[in-house]
Specification:
heterodimer, A: 745 residues, alpha+beta, seven-stranded mixed beta sheet, 24 helices, B: 401 residues, mainly alpha, three-stranded antiparallel beta sheet, 3 strands
Chain lengths: 745, 401
């Protein structure tokens, strides 16, 4: 082989080698420089999983910064799915059985030789293990199917709800496979476990591989059932809510399927503030979906939700609930339910909102048994209903403010006009029976009276005459057929007040048109409603004179919520005649800081021009409580009226008719102290009898501690509200018995 | 033959008062033809850098995602580096010309090991390949050594023919190459076989086989390859690995094709996602999440591409390129045919392994189990490389003696 040939051939090799290197470079250039950006996006999408870290919910406080709804740490047992699934199958089932037994164990009645006894006899490892498994299997197998602790409230709760601690192996398996839970985080299998169980699980951790005992925050209610309706509760997202959210989730605080949401009350209306901003953890996962590590630089810490400071004064709230409870528990009372609302007539803020019967929201934390849910939603008691806004009741004589206002506006009466009240009034000439022509006073004859006296003594005849006049004017076409009702609605009746709570009722002010619609819809639905008698239906469509008269005294399906009454009286009580949109909010602040996110500005929906009518009206309402002959005079005899002058109006609503004869609803609306009232109280007690019999005494009990200085409205301190659900109706009833009771509406 | 072209380096001029007496490192008793004056320090340096680079990448693929980091693999690599360096030095000190007499033993020994590894009593099987000896805690892969054994054998035999290659002699050389190749095929280890084919071809070329004969051989090789691929001698996964890269953009044909393609896609994705400068050392997403299989060994280049990007790949290829260049230069400068052929074989072995290994991770070569020289984790491969470089150094430093 010649040297030249040699060199030549080596040169060939060099060229070949160079071209191979060149090919590599070219390909790398294409992959890394040309396609590099796309690839790195694809890689990060492939290899990361984002886990949402729930944030603590904001607290709810009263206007003096008393915490009404707090967060409490609950001990949660969870299984680390990531590690669990790598276990052998027999290890898995052994673990589940052991865990099921431990969690199902009732801490009080400890089984003999129970390993939970701790450092007891079974110290030897093997023996300890065995006794654990043997004692555990039986209760685990026998245990009833457990109630899903986070089941949608009202959902398909299991029948055996008594032993909610029973955690069966089947339940654990179901839970582990439940796709609603994020499998990149430990899956909770039991919460709120007793301390003994927690200690046992921690001490014997080697027996429970991959079981995590963790603390989680849940809602807690330092004052028990106090203001339960107003505060509302949180619960897991319902399926419908989740479907809606899936399509259109909150961009800042996105929900996950297992998340909780405010269901009712303040929890619902201020959800967007109360809900914390969830954090985020980004994990890198391998091709099998196992976590490799956390990308710490992409972690976002959760931000707690904002604190909602309510306009509620928990002391007044307590007094209001106590007053209701007292009236219901009072001897001889058949009343089962009632409502009381206290508002500030200067800005429309709600100071207290009580509804009875009530419930302890703590019972709804972490799921609820079917039995409890049935009790809460029983249509006979409507425990969950906030009766101050969600139910409308006949307004009765408290409605006389509205009819006076309407009559004055329409020029039917003047304040000084003297009207004769002989105790009865014949509306029609000639009388027609089915027009309800003969009307009588409940309190007998009052003689010649003016507007103020009519209010003070609650003369029905005076208002029948107003209704009559309104009817004939409309018949004559001098005013439109519903002019009278329109004026009444000017005070906010028949329409939602727009309070920042859910489920508000609009109430009802019957008009000729609504009457026709009602009759028509009944006729349409079934002619049977009118016994197939077209004439009867036509007659029912006709607005009759008796209806106008009844509307004027707040009867005949005139329905108002206690809050509507309070707002109408507020418009009279404040000198500007401002009708507000009420609110339970004072302000929203960042958690643990003074930064106000949302403040409260009073919202005036309308300004009522009382003009010269205001004084006679005020005189009338003052007479009710302060002058002999006033319908609330007897009740307020012992009230410190000289230092805290209170005005009010009683109401006694006839409910039911014919066979369905029930006891009258008792109503009372009060405001004080005059001349510049700071409070309006509206009380309604179902089946409470006369207005001065239970509602007025309840208002008395609410106002008295404020009048005697026990509670200074704009300052904290004074009366200390006991923590926990500790209203004792019996002892409150004794206090209530000390208050004079009237027997007039 | 090439000695006349050598121009000794001009010793540094003593200028200025501060200069002290300095002698060239390789100077032994002032003998200008002493081999130690001619050690290729550039080659040694590049080998050191490349293996250190490899150790770093092995560490980055094996340390795990979170502390405490696993250092076992790194320690083993460093141990192999030290053993390898000693081995390389020993080989360099050894006069390669004595191998001309010993080559039958070396060649015979490596063939014997290849036979032995096929005996289940001695050899270990891993993922379908019967190719390892368990020696204490280590696994010895005789096919790695056999490549070198074949090169030494070829060089020894061909140098005895002194360039006079008639058909019989060519056939003898072919037989010498074919025996270990066949044995490796039996394991089966396709990658090593393919490297051996390329090495043999290059050796035949440099040994002076006529172009016509080479052409016939090339055609024959293509025919045999086609035959092997279609005859069903190979297992399905082997065919899939070999053919998948050709059809990267076409529909999946089989389950194994899909699996292979998945691996290829992940590897390519890893390299691509590095971009210009990479995601940073120890910071490769695909690396950490184990998306790429066999990453510390055959697919280690994906870690380089992902973490260090185009720049890092360039640096590594540059280092390897310098090594190749120095080996090629040694082949060119060798004082005899034996040395030339030795270095040529080693150079082609390195080049083909680099090209095949990197090529398969970026989708221009079929997937075969070939380590990246100096970089991949694997004792046998690394020690073989050190041995080879030792031989090259030996050839290079004795070009005047």
């Amino acid at each position: 082989m010649s040297t030249d040939n040699h060199r030549h051939r080596l040169g060939l090799l060099a060229i070949a080698a160079l071209s191979l290197f060149g090919a590599l470079f070219a390909r790398l250039w294409f992959l890394q420089i040309v396609e590099g950006a796309d690839a790195s996006e694809q890689v990060s999408a492939n290899a990361t999983r984002t886990v949402i870290v729930p944030a603590a919910r904001g607290r709810i406080l009263d206007r003096h910064n008393v915490v009404l709804v707090d967060n409490q740490v609950s001990t949660v047992v969870a299984i680390d799915w990531q590690k669990y699934r790598d276990m052998e199958e027999d290890e898995q089932s052994e673990l589940l059985q052991r865990l099921s037994a431990t969690l199902s164990r009732v801490p009080e009645g400890e089984v003999e030789g129970d390993p939970a006894a701790g450092d007891g006899e079974d110290e030897g490892d093997g023996a300890g293990d065995e006794s654990t498994t043997t004692t555990s299997t039986e209760p685990g197998v026998e245990a009833d199917p457990a109630v899903d602790p986070t089941a949608v409230v009202g959902g398909d709760g299991d029948a055996a709800a008594e032993d909610s601690r029973a955690v069966t192996v089947e339940f654990l398996e179901r839970r582990l496979n439940d796709l609603r839970f994020n499998h990149f985080r430990p899956i909770p299998v039991a919460d709120d476990i007793p301390v003994e169980t927690e200690i046992y699980l921690r001490e014997q951790a080697h027996l429970f591989p991959n079981v995590v005992v963790d603390r989680q925050t849940v809602r807690s209610y330092p004052y028990g059932s106090l203001a339960a309706h107003l505060l509302g509760y949180v619960g897991p997202l319902s399926d419908e809510q989740w479907e809606k959210l899936e399509a259109d989730n909150d961009p800042v605080k996105p929900y996950e399927q297992a998340d909780e949401i405010g269901k009712t009350g303040v929890e619902a209306t201020y959800e967007k503030y109360l809900r914390g901003t969830p954090g985020r953890q980004v994990f890198e996962v391998d091709r099998a979906g196992r976590i490799v590590r956390e990308l710490v630089d992409r972690r976002v810490e959760p931000q707690p939700g904002d604190d909602v400071h309510l306009s509620i004064d928990i002391r007044i709230q307590y007094k209001a609930e106590e007053a209701l409870a007292a009236q219901l528990a009072r001897e001889g009372s058949v009343a089962k339910s009632g409502a009381a609302v206290v508002v500030d007539p200067r800005n429309g803020q709600v100071r207290a909102m009580a509804s009875w019967p009530t419930y302890d929201p703590q019972e709804l934390v972490g799921g609820i048994s079917q039995e409890l849910w049935d009790r809460l939603t029983d249509p006979a008691t409507k425990v969950l209903s906030n009766r101050t806004i969600q139910e409308a009741y006949p307004a009765a004589s408290t409605f006389k403010l509205a009819s006076s206002y309407a009559a004055l506006r329409l020029g039917i009466v003047t304040p000084d006009e003297v009207v004769s009240d002989p105790g009865y009034h014949q509306l029609c000439d000639p009388p027609r029976e089915n027009d309800g022509c003969l009307k009588t006073n409940s309190g007998g004859a009052n003689g010649p009276i003016t507007l103020s006296t009519a209010i003070k003594v609650s003369s029905d005849v005076y208002y029948y005459k107003i209704g009559e006049a309104a009817f004939w004017r409309a018949e004559r076409g001098e005013i439109s057929e519903d002019a009278f009702q329109q004026e009444i609605m000017g005070l906010g009746y028949g329409a939602r007040t727009g309070i920042d709570l859910t489920g508000e009722s609009a109430g009802r002010v019957p008009t000729p048109e609504s009457n026709r619609e009602l009759a028509d819809s009944l006729w349409e639905r079934s002619h049977e409603n009118y016994d197939n008698d077209e004439a009867a239906w036509k007659d029912a469509r006709r607005w009759k004179i008796g209806y106008s008269a009844d509307v004027a005294i707040g009867q005949f399906d005139t329905l108002v919520t206690p809050l509507q009454s309070a707002m109408a009286y507020s418009a009279l009580a404040n000198s500007q005649g401002e009708l507000y949109r009420p609110s339970v909010l004072d302000h929203v602040a960042r958690a643990n800081s003074a930064t106000v996110v949302k403040g409260y500005a009073k919202e005036v929906t309308r300004v009522i021009e009382w003009g010269g009518w205001r004084q006679p009206l005020l005189d009338g309402f003052a007479g009710v409580t302060q002058q002999p002959g006033g319908t609330g005079y007897l009740t307020f005899q012992d009230f410190p009226l000289s230092t805290f002058p209170v005005s009010g109006k009683t109401g006694t609503a006839e409910v039911g008719d014919g066979a369905d004869q029930r006891r009258d609803n008792s109503l009372f609306v009060a405001y004080g102290p005059n001349p510049d009232p700071t409070l309006v109280v509206s009380v309604m007690i179902e089946a409470g009898g006369f207005g001065s019999e239970s509602a007025a005494p309840a208002a008395y009990m609410i106002l008295e501690p404020i009048a005697n200085g026990e509670i200074v409205q704009d300052q904290p301190g004074g009366f200390v509200v006991p923590r926990g659900a500790s209203i004792d109706p019996e002892s409150a009833a004794i206090v209530a018995d000390g208050i004079g009771r009237g027997t007039t509406d | 033959m090439t000695a006349t072209r050598y121009k000794p380096r001009v010793p540094p001029q003593r200028t200025g008062p501060q200069t002290t007496t300095r002698r060239p490192i390789g100077s032994f008793r002032g003998n200008p033809s002493s081999p130690f004056r001619h050690v290729d320090l550039l080659l040694v340096g590049c080998v050191f850098l490349a293996t250190s680079f490899g150790a770093l990448m092995v560490y980055s693929t094996t340390r795990g995602a979170t502390p405490p980091y696993e250092t076992g693999f790194l320690k083993r690599v460093i141990m192999f580096m030290i053993i390898g360096a000693v081995l390389m030095a020993a080989t360099a000190l050894f006069d390669y010309r004595r191998l001309r007499d010993y080559w039958p033993f070396i060649y015979g020994g490596s063939v014997a090991l290849l036979v032995l590894v096929l005996v289940p009593a001695f050899g270990e099987s891993r993922s379908g390949t019967q190719g390892w000896f368990q020696v204490g805690p280590f696994q010895l892969q005789p096919s790695e050594l056999a490549k070198l054994g074949m090169i030494i054998g070829f060089a020894g035999l061909a140098s005895q023919f002194r360039g006079d290659l008639d058909t019989t002699r060519v056939l003898m050389l072919l037989g010498l190459c074919g025996l270990p190749m066949g044995l490796v095929m039996l394991q089966p280890d396709l990658g090593t076989t393919l490297v051996s084919v390329a090495v043999s071809f290059a050796l035949l070329l440099v040994a002076g086989v006529r172009p016509r004969v080479l052409g016939v051989l090339a055609v024959g090789a293509v025919l045999i390859t086609t035959l092997v691929l279609t005859s069903g001698v190979l297992k399905e996964y082997q065919v899939a690995r070999l053919t998948t890269y050709v059809r990267q953009d076409q529909a999946v044909t089989s389950e194994t094709d899909e699996a292979t393609r998945y691996n290829l896609d992940q590897a390519k994705l890893a390299v691509s996602s590095g971009g210009l400068t990479g995601q940073g050392l120890f910071n490769g997403t695909q690396t950490r999440t184990g998306m790429v299989p066999e990453q510390r060994t055959d697919f280690i280049f994906t870690a380089v591409g992902e973490q260090l990007g185009f720049v890092g790949c360039g640096v590594l290829l540059g280092l390897l390129g310098v090594i190749v260049w120095r080996v090629w230069r040694a082949a060119q400068l060798a004082r005899d045919d034996f040395g030339t052929l030795l270095c040529t074989g080693i150079m082609v072995m390195i080049v083909i392994q680099i090209f095949e290994n990197i090529g398969m991770t970026i989708g221009i070569m079929p997937i075969t189990g070939i380590p990246l020289p100096f970089v991949s984790y694997g004792g046998s491969a690394l020690l073989t490389m050190f041995l080879s470089i030792g031989l090259v150094l030996s050839v290079h430093m004795r070009r005047f003696s």
